[in-house]
Amino acid sequence: MINKEKITRNWLRRYTGTEPDDFGDWILLTNFQNYVEKFTEKFGIPIKGSGGAMTSATNADGLSIINYGMGSANAATIMDLLSGIHPKGVLFLGKCGGLKQSTELGHFILPIAAIRGEGTSDDYFPKEVPAMPSFKLHKYVSQLLVEHDLDYRTGVIYTTNRRVWEHDEDFKTYLKKVRAIGIDMETATVFITGFANGIDRGALLLVSDTPMTPEGVKTEESDKEVTQKYVDLHIEMGIEAMTRIGEEGETIKHFTY
What we know:
Layout: H1 4-16, E1 26-30, H2 33-43, E2 55-58, E3 63-67, H3 72-82, E4 89-98, E5 108-117, H4 135-147, E6 152-160, H5 169-178, E7 182-184, H6 187-197, E8 201-209, H7 220-247
Parallel strand pairs: 1-3, 1-4, 4-8, 5-6, 6-7
Antiparallel strand pairs: 2-3, 4-7, 5-8
Helix pairs in contact: 1-3, 3-6, 4-7
């Protein structure tokens, strides 16, 4: 077990409850179990890995979904493990806090980059390396949102390991200085670890709270409201984007180093 591919394939099965060869070429990542449940209900398929570290499912069209848990360490782990099966593309369906007045609950954000404030990505590349998505994957998702007449925002996401910061005025001042449009805990990690592992990656984020104001901080009640109003659409856009990009044979990689 000193070969990376042997390790990752063995651990991918152990973490997700799915055999490596049973995953599809296209992967949806999430950190919410209800996303996996809605996916399996839509396609009438079982959830694998229940009771373990991560859950997963794959439909007949070769689209898989994985709930990797929460936080940048878990995001890095699943991207490392996916390197053992060489997926054609990975799209992260996550939630984020909107940091600007132009970002309201239910808005979609298609990040053009992410600030590496979480620390985990430092184990992969120096700080000078930007965390960015694969352009053609985001271009495809953007076109899909436009086709559905859905408004969305672009901008830079600030990714942090810090979960409880809404009370910290100094940190809020810092967030204003860096001009980020949203904040989350995984996007930069997914982008950097995807780059490190040669995996084409993107993120379609749903604004679930507006934490720069006291009334905008996420609560149990407000999270339920966001879930009821917007999560189904979020999942549908992810499914349609990754299904169509596979069916239409879009080539994501458009240059080589």
